[in-house]
Write a structure and sequence with these properties.
- Helices cover 45% and strands 18% of the residues.
- With 267 residues, it is an alpha/beta fold.
- The chain has an eight-stranded mixed sheet, with helices on both faces.
- Strand 1 (3-8) and strand 2 form a beta hairpin.
- Helix 1 (38-44) crosses helix 12, helix 2 crosses helix 3 and helix 4 packs antiparallel against helix 8 (180-192).
Length: 267
């Protein structure tokens, strides 16, 4: 029987669970919310019980303060699993969600089936760190709204921006509605995660797919190679023509890649 439950959990996290089958949890990016995965939920929930939720400080989940750390986001994931009575799950982390997924894989390997690290970051170079640090500085000085136009241009292709104004408008409104303190706190974690995660993925034992878009300038193909080099049981995939927001712009390709990896079919 297909399940569809949506609402606020005991800890305040806003969550949705759809489908029937093995548990699959999808983690969204910074400044976004669970609706990032709308297209994937529609496809994957035919085979899996798909869980999406709003990270701390995002969407309908509680706001956060500057003292919040990456561990708190990992703790939120654990609480979601406990409240939904999920002992073990496939975890897919997109962008910032990929950092949460990396940390979860290191801290709770016994609760992880397969791991997907999508359009996320790992072992960033000084040049790569300088780019994201510059965006953080601008957001702090001028307000989070100041970095939205450049984010849209990085995340989507010109053709998608021109052809899907309703989707772009939804993303812009979502970014603009974020609580400033919550956003800056999460973005700071995104910028400084190297201190906690750099070089540590050698300890990950779960079967892993590292995937990004060919044209993603923030979560590059080089980062995928670094992840695959460090994780013993990992494979990499680069989606041709993909930019950062692949779950939306390249929805069919992303869903196909996830189904292939999770079901052990060849890609």
């Amino acid at each position: 029987m297909r399940m569809n439950r949506e609402g606020r959990l005991a800890d305040g996290t806003y969550c949705e669970m759809v489908g029937n089958g093995p548990p699959l949890i999808l983690l969204h990016g910074v400044g976004l919310n669970r609706t990032t995965w709308r297209a994937q939920v529609a496809v994957l929930s035919k085979r899996y019980t798909v869980v999406t939720y709003d990270h701390l400080g995002h969407g309908r989940s509680p706001h956060i303060q500057p003292e919040t750390r990456l561990d708190d986001f990992v703790g939120q994931l654990v609480k979601v699993m406990d409240q939904l009575q999920i002992d073990k799950a496939h975890i897919v982390g997109f962008s910032f969600g990929g950092l949460v997924a990396q940390s979860f894989a290191l801290k709770y390997p016994d609760r992880l089936n397969k791991l997907v690290l999508m359009s996320t970051v790992y072992n960033r170079t000084e040049e790569e760190l300088a780019g994201v640090s510059g965006r953080l500085a601008k957001a702090r000085e001028e307000g989070p709204h100041s970095i939205i136009p450049a984010a849209i241009d990085r995340w989507f292709s010109p053709a998608f921006i021109a052809g899907q104004p309703e989707v772009i408008g939804e993303i812009e409104r979502g970014l603009g509605s974020n609580d400033p303190t919550s956003f800056l706190t999460a973005y700071t974690i995104f910028c400084t995660a190297e201190a906690e995660l750099a070089g540590k993925l050698k300890a990950v034992t779960a079967p892993t797919l590292a995937i990004t878009g060919e044209l993603d300038t923030g979560s590059t193909a080089a980062m995928v190679k670094r992840m695959v080099a460090d994780i013993a049981n990992a494979r990499g995939k680069i989606i041709e023509g993909g930019r950062h927001m692949m779950p939306m712009e390249m929805a069919d390709e992303v869903s196909a890649a996830l189904l292939a990896f999770l079901s052990d079919r060849s890609e």
